[in-house]
Amino acid sequence: MEAKDRIVLALDVDTAEEALGLVDKLNQHVGVFKIGMQLYNGIGPDIVHRVHDLGGKVFLDLKLHDIPNTVASAARVLTRLNAFMFNVHAAGGREMMSQAAQACRVQADRLGTPAPLLLAVTVLTSISGQELKDDMYITGLNVEELVVKWALMAQESGLGGVVCSPQEIAPIRSACGPDFKIVTPGIRPLWSAANDQKRITTPRQALDQGADYMVIGRPIVQADDPVTAAQRIIEELEAE
Ligand code: C5P
After folding, report:
1. Which of 63, 149, 181, 198 is catalytic?
2. In Å, how far from its chain's centre is CA 120?
3. What CATH number does the domain containing 162 carry?
4. Domain of 218?
5. Number of domains into which the chain is organized
6. What is the pLDDT of residues 100-148, one digit of tens each?
7. Which of 31, 89, 115, 154 sits CB 3.0–4.6 Å from 108 for a disulfide?
8. How far apart are CA 59 and CA 51, in angstroms?
């Protein structure tokens, strides 16, 4: 995969104009555009078609989590949008993930399109080990052990990969093997501000640890020159 194709640009904006302006400007410099709940819920499914019309690939970051039948039905209709990838919460459980994966495959078969890459969100990086114990009553496993178990459950359920923090790339890669896709946010080149991200890693470190895709927002979007920022990241990924 080319370095550019590993970069997933987070379209964390409210309006279609802002989002499509970014797609237009950066389409030759990043591989995928992430449409999250802010943009999708504000604009609706049409935003996916409009990014496609400009030639962009889409990661639909809607983090589905409900009973298996409901998530499978949503997965079926989302597959019709032809996103390159979308995601569900591993916390929804094995049956929910299996039914969602199955719904994607059946719908894609019917349409004659490639099935989207279905990813599981493991433990949100905003949840600390302490919260896991004190508020969620998950004891006996630390965050990393839980994340690896959930990544394996996602793989056994027929999903193609996970979204995880940079800290967990290496243990997931070793547990789930080379073909399981790993997508990671919390990426900061050394020359950019950390913003509110805490446990960060550089694009190059994420790649070296085994990440396939890196979700990057503000270091590119808020740079004085977003194209130059994306190019600097590509050069860092390509360096020997
Ligand atoms: O601007 P920044 O590079 O921090 O954007 C990262 C993107 O990845 C945002 O869309 C954010 O919601 C998302 N994300 C994250 N941490 C997670 C999951 C998603 O930063 N654990």
Report:
1. 63
2. 9
3. 3.20.20.70
4. 3-238
5. 1
6. 999 999 999 999 999 999 999 999 888 888 999 999 999 999 999 999 9
7. 115
8. 11
